């Protein structure tokens, strides 16, 4: 894929799916903006890539998202694509503590997950869209999840947030398609990333999570990144408001 001359933003770009996507975008010729709350890791990924910049952003802060886009406009003058990928889970907020039942989920955990995973996507979109309109259009991909379609016990916050992102993706696709902006989402299945590694390889979960996957393996970050690259590219220029199930056949 030839993405030379395009400027693409990746949030959550410092590790996992985000970092893999940054590397594929750069290999396709894009100028990549690596945005993450972890400054050191974001700088590390950007340092690997030609004509890349790193930005520190807390996507749950609308002002931070506005400042992120202002920095992109200052350096590149445009924005052709965005991968709104930053996210967390209840497990990451609880720092490995046992997952409570939903009626006992601390309200601060609920709020934190919704702030990052749903509000954060909207705050990014709200900041990105004006610069994309000024740039003459573009492509957006939001990270949803297998849990935008189904759920697991004790994941109420994450499930609610990802269902919300799925609806938000459709709303943006409907509203901005006529103005040359496509908005789609990718729904990863079980991906082996730093965010999930401690859970999916735990003896009590591994076999249960592998059983419904016909391919009998967990996804790699690169598996998901290739789907994102396609959705951002001109090869997907008639795909709008869609969700790519990158789940190895889990929901089949």
TrEMBL record:
Keyword Oxidoreductase among record annotations: yes
This protein's UniProt keywords: Oxidoreductase
Top-level taxon of the source organism: Bacteria
Coiled coil spans: none
Pfam families per UniProt: adh_short_C2
InterPro entries cross-referenced by the UniProt entry: NAD(P)-bd_dom_sf, Sc_DH/Rdtase_CS, SDR_fam
Family statement drawn from the similarity comment of this UniProt entry: Belongs to the short-chain dehydrogenases/reductases (SDR) family.
Protein name, UniProt field: SDR family oxidoreductase
Source organism of the structure: Novosphingobium jiangmenense
């Amino acid at each position: 894929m030839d993405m030379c001359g395009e400027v693409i933003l990746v949030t959550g770009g410092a590790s996992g799916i985000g970092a893999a996507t940054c590397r594929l975008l750069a290999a396709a010729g894009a100028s990549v903006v690596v945005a993450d709350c972890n400054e050191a890791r974001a700088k590390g990924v950007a340092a690997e890539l030609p004509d890349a910049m790193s930005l520190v952003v807390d996507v749950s802060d609308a002002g931070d998202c506005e400042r992120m886009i202002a920095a992109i406009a200052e350096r590149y003058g445009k924005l052709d694509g965005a991968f709104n990928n930053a996210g967390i889970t209840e497990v990451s907020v609880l720092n490995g503590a046992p997952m409570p039942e939903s009626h006992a989920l601390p309200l601060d955990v609920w709020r934190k997950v919704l702030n990052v995973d749903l509000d954060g996507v909207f705050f990014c979109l709200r900041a990105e869209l004006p610069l994309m309109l000024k740039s003459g259009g573009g492509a957006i991909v939001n990270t949803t999840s297998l849990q935008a379609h189904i759920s697991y016990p004790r994941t109420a916050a994450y499930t609610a947030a990802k269902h919300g992102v799925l609806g938000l993706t459709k709303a943006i696709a409907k509203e901005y398609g006529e103005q040359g902006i496509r908005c789609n989402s990718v729904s990863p299945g079980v991906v082996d990333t730093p965010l999930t590694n401690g859970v999916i390889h735990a003896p009590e979960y591994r076999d249960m999570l592998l059983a419904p996957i016909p391919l009998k393996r967990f996804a790699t970050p690169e598996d998901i990144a290739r789907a994102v690259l396609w959705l951002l590219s001109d090869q997907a220029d008639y795909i709008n408001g869609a969700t790519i199930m990158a789940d190895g056949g889990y929901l089949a």
